Structure formats: structure tokens, C-alpha cells
Amino acid sequence: MRFGCHLSIGDGYLGAAKKAFQMGMAAFQYFPKNPRSLSIKEFNKDDTALCKAFCKETGITSVSHSPYPTNLTPHNMKQREQVIRSLLNDLEIAESCGSIGVVVHFGKHLPNKTLIESYQLMIEVLNDVLFEWNGQAKILLENKAGVPGTIGTTLEELVQIRKLCDQPEKIGFCLDTCHAFSCGLWDGDNWLKVLRRGTDLGYFDELEVIHLNNSKYPTREGKDRHAPIFQNGYINVDQFDQLMKTPKLNGIPFILETPKEEVPHEKEIRLLKEKWG
Hints:
Layout: E1 2-6, H1 12-22, E2 27-30, H2 45-58, E3 61-65, H3 77-97, E4 101-105, H4 115-131, E5 138-142, H5 155-164, E6 171-176, H6 177-183, H7 191-201, E7 207-212, E8 214-215, E9 226-227, H8 237-244, E10 253-256, H9 265-276
Helix pairs in contact: 1-2, 3-4
């Protein structure tokens, strides 16, 4: 089992990788730049090269997460161009760090567009980004939280968006357990059904990373509030156990995005290893 958590790059990309190693983790996630901006970052390529070499030497897997303002269904042409340029910058940094890809949240249903038009816009933006991208790092589409029926909450949507893009081989998936629980995709008791459906669709063939989060609210309430794995959450240990023991998930990094002020990540990683390592 490859457990890790989200880490700061305050001490550089190499610094984040070394922190992951010191914490005994086999994986980590990071924001490639300011998480609240779409500004282009002129990054230190010596630092990213050292990060890549260190991760290769120690067997650590890294994954990048796009900044919060990244929106695959932008409201206007100006925002669309900002998102495209920013994502290309994120991919370049991820590639330089040797990361598997950049996690990007599924798009939104725009109020002035039909659902089909929102999906089409998302496909167009992905095509624009990937037309210019020739690296190995992938766009990793993440399922969304929300009440049942919210856009981006079904495996069918994720698979179909990928399939309809011009270069689907450049797209993978990120499964967030809290988001899946929030919308009832995984209600805690139907993992085998999710697994069968995802396998039939080919979803799990393209799954690259799992965001391992508990939920502070019951399933189908549509609330995206993460909780530690072993306390303060509505997903119990037995329910997580089914997911953890799925052979199809072997080798996939499990990244904590849980509130570290409630349970320090070092402790949570240790508990995860004791239970499932």
C-alpha cells in the first residue's frame, strides 16, 4: 500500500520529497504553485530535477494538484485562456518533478448553458490543453462532491468525457472517497457494485491516484467536508477495509487530504500502515 499526504513546497519540490521520505511515506501530493492563483510560475528546474531524482532513488510517487481557481468550464474567453496556460504550466512542473500527473476537478454546470453544452465546453478546454502538451504527465480528472445528480459525480461521466477527448491517453482519473460518499456514488456499503461498474466501464484501468478522505457528513448530503480516516467521520473502518483490500487498487497511491490539525498526518500514516500496510 502506497500511503502519503499533501505537502507544502515551501522548502521547494525537493524539500517536499525529502519531507515525504522522513515521514515514511511512499507518495505525496503538492500544489505546483500558489494554490489560489492561475499565474504562471517560473520554477527552479534544478530543484525539480533533484526532486525527480530523489523520488526515483527512494521509490516515492508524486502527484500534483492544480490550483483552486482552475475551472474546466470557464465563464468567458479570458478565463478560458488563463486556465489553459495555467494547466500547461502545471503539467510542465509535474513533468519536471517526475510526477504522474496533475489532479483537476471536474467542470461545473454553467447556469447560462445546458448540461450538454457544459460537458462540451469541458471537452474543448481539455482538447486545447492536451493539443499543446507532449509530456508523460497526465491530466487526472477528479470526481466531484455534491448531492446525487450533481455534474461530475458519476463514473459514467468521467469515462465518457475522457473517451470524447481527442487524446484520451493523456487523461487519467483521481478518485476522492469523501466526494464519492458525499454524492452516494459510494455509500459505504456498495463498494462491490462500484467496483463492478467501474471495471465494466474501464474506469479502474485509468485510475492513477486515490484521495483517501473520510466524510464529516452522511452520504448523499452533498457536503465536501473531509474527516480523518479513523475518527470523526461517517465512513467506518469496515467500509474502508473493503476498498483497501481491492486487488485492482494495488500500487495506486492513496493520498490523505484530511485535516491535520485533528490528527497529524504522521500519526495517520502510521495508523494506516498498521491497519493495511
